[in-house]
Amino acid sequence: MNIHNARFLLSGVKKEHYPVSTMPEVAFAGRSNVGKSSMINKILNRKNFARVSATPGKTATINFYDIDKKLMLVDLPGYGYAAASKGERKALSDIINEYLTERKQLVQLILLVDSRHKPTEDDRRMMDTIKSAGGMAVVIATKTDKLSKRELEENLDRIIETLNLSDGDILLPFSTKTAESAENFWDYIYDYILF
Ligand code: GTP
Ligand code: MG
Question: What SUPFAM superfamilies does the entry give (predicted)?
Fold first, then answer.
C-alpha cells in the first residue's frame, strides 16, 4: 500500500454538503457496528481517523476522505441499529439513499457484513441496490479474527449463498488485526478502481 496523503475532507448529511470533486468514490455501507470506520482506519494505517465505537450508531453522517487526490473513500452511517427510534432509522436511511442515488462520482459501493452472522434482510436490500446499478458486487466479511479457519469457511459460503454472489463478484475477508487484509483491499482498489 502506498498512501502518501490521506485527508479527512468533510462530514455531511445531504447532497448540498458533498465535496466538489472529480475523483472516483468508493463508499462503505453496512449495518451499524459491522466495522466500516475501523476498516477505513486500518487501510489508511491511522488509529482514530474515522471515529469508531463499541456502541452501534457511531457514524451518523457521511464522511469523505481524500486519498492522494486520486480516490475518495466514503464512510456511510450504518443501518439496522435496532435500539434507534423509528424516526432516527428513517433519517439515517434517507441520508444513505440520497447519497446512493445522487452521487455521480460513486464508482463502487462496498457492502460490509459481519463474518460471524448471516446477512440480514437490510443487507440483502443493499445488495439489490448494488446489483441494480450494474457492475460487480464487492463484499467485505469483517472481524474474521473472531472465527476459526473452519468457521470462517462455512460462514463465507453462507454469505455467498444469502447474498446470491456470483463468479464476477468479490468477497474479501477482513480483520483489523492483520496487515494482510488491508493489502488485499488495496490490491482490489488498484486492480479495479485505479488501474
Ligand atoms: P457505525 O458507525 O455505528 O455504523 O459502526 P461501524 O460499522 O463504523 O463500526 P466501527 O468501526 O465503529 O466498529 C464497531 C466495533 O467493532 C468496535 O468496537 C471495533 O473495535 C470493532 N471491530 C471492528 N473491526 C474489527 C475487527 O476486524 N476485529 C475485531 N475483533 N473487532 C473489530
Ligand atoms: Mg462508523
Answer: P-loop containing nucleoside triphosphate hydrolases
Q: Over the stretch 155-181, which tens digit does the pLDDT of each residue have?
A: 999 999 999 999 999 999 999 999 999
Sheet containing 71-75: order of strands: 6-12, 62-67, 71-75, 25-30, 106-114, 138-142, 170-173
Q: Per this entry, what is the length of the chain?
A: 195
- Which residues sit with their C-beta closer than 6 Å to ligand 1? 30, 32-38, 52-54, 56-59, 77-78, 142-143, 145-146, 175-177
Distance 174 CA to ligand 1 centre (A): 12
pTM of this prediction? Answer: 0.96
* 138 SS3 class: strand
Buried b or exposed e, range 128-145, using 16+ CB within 10 angstroms? eebbeeeeebbbbbbbbe
Range with lowest mean pLDDT among 79-83, 139-143, 145-149: 79-83
